[in-house]
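S., here's the first fold you wanted:
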Amino acid sequence: MFNDELSRRISRARSNSISDLLRRSAARVPDKTAIVHHGLRQTYAELDETVNRTANALAARGVGKGDRIAVFSHNNHAFVVVYFALARLGAASVPVNFMLAAGEVGYVLEHSGAIGLIVEDALLPVAEQALEDAGLTGTVRVRGMIPADRPQPQPGWESVADWMAHGDASPPDVFIGDDDLTQLIYTSGTESRPKGAMLTSRSLIAQYVTCVMDGEMTAEDIEVHSLPLYHCAQLHCFLTPGIYLGATNIVLPGPDPELILRTVEAERATKLFCPPTVWISLLRHADFARRDLSSLRKGYYGASIMPVEVLKEIGDRLPGVRLFNFYGQTEMAPLATVLKPEDQVRKAGSAGRPALNVETLVVDDDDRPVPPGVVGEIVHRSPHAMLGYWNDPQRTEAAFAGGWFHSGDLGVMDDEGYLTVVDRKKDMIKTGGENVASREVEEVLYQHPAVAEAAVFGMPHPRWIEAVTAAVVLRDEESVSADELVTHCQKGLARFKVPKHIVFVEQLPKNASGKLLKRQLRTEVQPPWPSA
């Protein structure tokens, strides 16, 4: 329709990338507090300038459009700056779970093709071991250290604080398309190795609009962000929508109950997201009754279903808080359905209805919709959906069969259109808000010479909601204790993936075709902790 030059100019004029969101908020509310972290408070104008300086420092080190840069860190100010700085260059951030072992980190670095790694100083030993073990010491050439306990970087690393003070504060001149890769998030999935979900500005911004509308978010919000920012829930349902709106965001290093309660009181926070495990820890903390939490107006949970008694207790002890359940997954950027405040008790246990920009169905094995009350696979159509899995066309094709994104979760719709998640189509355990692929744990157990068979599954737990549990069949003439198997698993797995309970059985239950019956194990195995 138009010549190439005019088409490029039109595309720039219509730009709507993650990078644009912060710049627009800085222009709209330059003097408003954007980020609070420890003693640091930055306005939107200051944060925007810091992002520009960091982006220009990264560009000077050869980072450009399409590059992948891994970020291995707990929550901090630098994590937020780097995320937006990479988006401003058209590079993709690859957030890495800070609980992973060196071998797991190395896999993400290698599979993503990351040319850079930005690491919190406390995690440097794991990062360096990951680079060495994966043979990437010479490949990952851009290396930044986020200083916390070490003001000076280790040899071979540069201080991210120095990047933030780079001399050039001008905005980088990079055009970023709606479907250019913005972030590559590795999901535990249901396989032995994680998959990289490709998220774009189109996916994310559509999802932010949904969060804002269905979550009743406003520019006046003051929100505490304590859950990990490497995880899409805290980053993409709460922090970045807050930046988009021009709200105030308090970033905590982690979900410490005492610190959360103290911060809500001190900052007069209005919003708080926690998985059920953290809400429970807040309610049980001695400071809950002593702190002034009257500023809280909105509370959110996700990752697992909130026990009904806990819902009632939150309602009794925080009567001014409107509570929302957000259900989804990384591949949906991540929000898919919402259970709103008025339905929390009436529809307790439900994941709610499809969110604003989402269509959701429950289908059979032939992708045909099933009637209300019938269990099937949950599928979605939405601009939230990822672009696909990085370098994995086969799994991408399976995920988008029939023109719908297949969640892998089993669910049932009632006659009012409310969705209840009843199981995982493939065996995923959600423990303390973290995903654990059972097959990954099983493969580590199988590496022990005494193990003949192993089945890993989730058991209800009063604190973790689900606990990783293993049923093990030993080889003939072999013996090993549960403690020894736990020690064996600790060598190859992140701590949250290690089984919390191991039972020894003579044989694993299977059907006539040899398929393992994990549902039967869940009913037969008696956990050593009190019932959830």
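And the second, which I think is the more interesting of the pair:
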Amino acid sequence: MQVRSHSLGDIPRRSARRCPDKVAIVDGAVGLTFAEFDELVDRAAAALRDNGFAPGDRIALLARNCWQYAVLAFATARAAVVLVPINFMLTAEEIAYILDHSQVRGVIVEHDLIPVAAQAMTRGGMVTTKVVLTTGEQRTPAGWDDFALWLTTTTPAPDLTIDDDQLLRLMYTSGTESRPKGVMHSSRSLMANYVSSIVAGSMESDDVEIHSMPLYHCAQLDNFLATDIYLGATSIILPRPDPELVLRGIEAHSATNYFAPPTVWIALLRSPIFDQVDLSSLRKGYYGASAMPTEVLHEIRERLPNLALWNFYGQTEMAPLASAMGPDDQRDHAGAAGRPAINVETAIVDDTDHPVEPGTIGEIAHRGPHLMLGYLDDPVRTAEAFRGGWFHSGDLGYYDEFGLLRVVDRKKDMIKTGGENVASREVEEVLYRHPGVEEVAVFGIPHPVWVEAVVAAVVIRNGGTTDEHELIKHCRAHLAGFKTPKQVFFVDSLPKNPSGKLLKRDLRTRFGSEKPFHSPDASVPQ
């Protein structure tokens, strides 16, 4: 180890030296102090080496949230092994693609996910080491190692020099395209992101944070769990963002911090036990993955008046934080993405990659140490993303008169109807003002006259009543004719990926094939 080492694997040891007896992780009946956590990281790193993993080798992790996930996030880095987190909701075919593309030589799998992992391994990858996470009551299948036995090793942990730009993590995008991309992150990009997250989110060592979103996703893992370990804060790991589980977890642990996408915050507000549990300890709330509807922000403020809210905006390629908006700006500038994080520079550029004037919509572009090394084995996409000395996010936005970043839409989600551009988010904000609307997604589908028509998929609020004509009339009172939805589809739920992002492509596929277009408002003027 270099005397000036500052890498991902150093974090648990430093926190253990500062606060060895403080609780680091709580996962059900398991509680680990920082000293215990660091020792487990050491043992897991040693076990990786003992089982033949050399620096640069890759190992996949397929598991739900658990304390072992946190250990492995740091142990792999300490051993200079590349961690490849995999979404546990994927099919065997999708997992097989990642195993093959990432060229992992080992997998660590939660016991209940072995069937889908085994099926995936028959289709892709060259896996030679298979490790299972068990509860202690489950039997280890033949041909698999038990991670619990790995942690009994007595050999010392590897003592390695880790370069700042050495590949340590492969994060796969959530598949908004036909195939997910392998995003390569180094210790440098992750560490810079941790510093930015701590500064932007006013995070402190006395925080007690609930972690319920999937840890395979970079937001929960790298904006919140890793930063808590870095600071010496306490992390409460929950298996899933079930509203009752989260609310009771906040009460039971006197939690101070919680992160979730807007869809989960909405689910918390609608929970029948929301007003029954003691949430007085909760003082910091974070949201991201998509914009928080203004009406929901108002409701959170009314029902949790002592909660300070932050909006974290970013993407996997940024490790993932790009910008943040703190509580001081939430009231007067609801809907903004805030200002660039302390280690990030953000510009709005036109189609020729030149910066545009404030107030002008263009593509949001970033540069700084958070950025990925590139896309695995994809030099063409990497070069395109980094053209002109900026990382091109694929998001459209502008800087307003207050210097705040405003995200308008994804480039691919901008609706072009009758020669006019419509930002789906603007229409969604108007629909959220209607008392009968629980959730909404606005998107475009083919239209015989306008080429593309603005339509909406709506989930009706529990106990609410509304119909298509009423919602279209509501929009027409607040929007230009070409922005008003031509049709409204009522659905039980909106399709989302596990990080909470709306999957509008699924809605376009589902409703875009309806022929003929039978809008009650097909004649709305453009």
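Why I say that: The two ends are 65 Å apart (CA to CA). The chain is about 30% helix and 25% strand.

Talk tomorrow,
H.
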